[in-house]
Amino acid sequence: MFLFGLSHNNIVFLFGLSHNNVMFLFGLSHNNIVFLFGLSHNNVVFLFGLSHNNIVFLFGLSHNNVMFLFGLSHNNVVFLFGLSHNNVVFLFGLSHNNVVFLFGLSHNNVVFLFGLSHNNVVFLFGLSHNNVVFLFGLSHNNVVFLFGLSENNVMFLFGLSHNNAVFLFGLSHNNVVFLFGLSHNNAVFLFGLSHNNVVFLFGLSHNNVVFLFGLSHNNVVFLFGLSHNNVVFLFGLSQNNVVFLFGLSHNNVVFLFGLSHNNVVFLFGLSHNNVVFLFGLSHNNVVFLFGLSHNNVVFLFGLSENNVMFLFGLPHNNAVFLFGLSHNNVMFLFGLSHNNAVFLFGLSHNNVVFLFGLSHNNVVFLFGLSHNNVVFLFGLSHNNVVFLFGLSHNNVVFLFGLSHNNVVFLFDIGTPSVPDQIQGAQS
Question: Where does the chain cross the membrane (predicted)?
Fold first, then answer.
């Protein structure tokens, strides 16, 4: 499984690498500091995201049968209630003013999602039953359209964006995955082909020179990425049980180093200026995370040992409190934000993992649901149109991302050779 996304100028960068039992994801945005890191090793899946200024914070940790997610948005009134019991998952979300409404229900092999946003009209409908997965999405004004259908071993995706012309077509059948993407104006081109144990990716961007080449064969995964001007460089190599990643960004100094060997996963990340620091270490059944942000004081500490997971996070000023505890097969999360009232509740039990995140005004929406062999993720952002859709079913893992205007495009389909670790990372 290989995933790579890159945006120029203000430096939005996403990299994902999967090898043996190790799944790694790293995303970085410049200036106001949006940072995402995900790592999966053996039965441990870890995700950490941090956004500066208005304080959007996401943290997720999965260990054994425990899935944990926390999301927080500042300012206006976001309410979430989610409940999972046996084979029934129920979700209700409500946002004020511009009216964002979400209802999701999962029972047995049927997953149903309905989302509605007012004003500029964003509509999503998704239905999954047995081996058939159907998704339809529609956005008004600048016209973003997505249609996806999966049945048996055939996965089909079609995406279209107006104005600056972003087009995506993807088809997966048996062991062959084909992707073609084209963007107008400044010329971003992506071609990917996967067959048997060979995955090939080639990407080219014009003007300021962004180049990507990736090749995977047997137990060797190699990635090389280069961006001009402000200097973004990525190199990744995986062989046998050793995964090595090195990333460097110039100017404000963002540095990432990750190394995985046998049962030990080590991550170190550092960002200059306002000082965002992340340290994570995983060894055997113990996962340790420490995160610190300066100024407004965001502190995160997480420890997982055996079947018990504990998380405590507290930011300053307007009083945001998070408490999470997991034991055996039951995971409980409670989060509360003062003033404009952001409340989060998440629960995971048995084979059902439920995730929901919602932000007001410009409408940022994320919904994730995992049940039996179906993993579904949908994200939507209004106005400038950022859209993400991910679906995993049986041995097919599918991810689609689209951003308007400056055109950031990401697409990935995983082959049947690496289903488990991908499904675990996206759940």
Answer: 12-37, 44-62, 68-92, 99-116, 122-147, 154-173, 193-213, 220-237, 243-268, 314-334, 380-402
Domain ranges of the chain: 2-426
Distance CA 383, CA 218 (A): 43
| Nearest alpha-carbon partner for 94 in 128, 124, 58, 118 | 118
The residue-averaged pLDDT of 410-423 equals 36
Q: Which pTM does this prediction carry?
A: 0.24
> Is 176 within 8 Å of 198 (Cβ atoms)?
no
Are 6 and 402 in contact by the 8 Å Cβ rule? The answer is no
Is residue 16 within 8 A of residue 36, CB to CB? The reply is no
DSSP state of 214: E
Q: Please identify which residue in the block is written with the tokens 């995900």.
A: 38
**Residue 366, both tokens:** 């994320």
> CA–CA separation, 319 vs 317, rounded Å?
6
- Amino acid (one-letter) located at 24: F
E strand or H helix at 424, and its extent?
Answer: helix 419-426
Which residues contact residue 206 at a Cβ distance below 8 angstroms, ignoring those fewer than 6 apart? Answer: 186, 187, 188
CA 408 to chain centre: 15
Q: Please tell me the number of Cα atoms within 13 Å of 256 on its side-chain side.
A: 25
Residue with tokens 């084209």: 182
Rounded CA gap, 203 and 213, in Å?
7
Backbone angles phi, psi at 425, to 5 degrees: -75, -30
118 is written with which tokens? 């007012």
Q: How far apart are CA 421 and CA 20, in angstroms?
A: 8
Q: What SS3 class is residue 419?
A: helix
Q: Which of 415, 421, 380 is nearest to 198 (CA)?
A: 415
Residues 6+ apart with CB under 8 A from 420: none
